[in-house]
Design a protein that fits this description.
The protein is built from no helices and eleven strands. The chain has 127 residues and is an all-beta fold.
Length: 127
């Protein structure tokens, strides 16, 4: 059973940067497709970014493209989300998620495709 523990959330001013980390245990991220999702206050959970298990394929929501970067470090068994030029509308609880994938190139924007989830970390961007 894979367990995911997130860190790195916090309060930042608009235009600032944050890095979210998600440490995996109980399984190797090298066998998993990875994703980041977020849930803004009063709204549904939404897709942010996804990466294939080999990192060769990545996807981003239009709202974060060019500002956010998803990556993984298989030695440290950690996935990350680098967030730059943050905006107040990026305020949300952010979740990392993974799913075992046979294909090295598989990604998904659909949260229902992911089996393992972190506990969530709050990101608040002030204007």
């Amino acid at each position: 059973q894979v367990q995911l523990v997130e860190s790195g959330g916090g309060l930042v001013q608009a235009g600032g940067s944050l890095r979210l980390s998600c440490l995996a245990s109980g399984g190797s991220l090298s066998n998993h497709a990875m994703g980041w999702f977020r849930q803004p206050p009063g709204k549904e959970r939404e897709f942010v970014a996804a990466s294939s298990r080999n990192g060769a394929t990545t996807e981003y929501a239009d709202s974060v493209k060019g500002r956010f970067t998803i990556s993984s470090d298989h030695v440290k068994n950690t996935m990350r989300l680098e967030m730059k030029s943050l905006k107040p509308e990026d305020t949300a609880v952010y979740y990392c998620a993974t799913v075992r994938a046979d294909s090295q190139y598989y990604t998904s924007r659909d949260y229902s495709q992911y089996d393992y989830w972190g506990q969530g970390t709050q990101v608040t961007v002030s204007s």
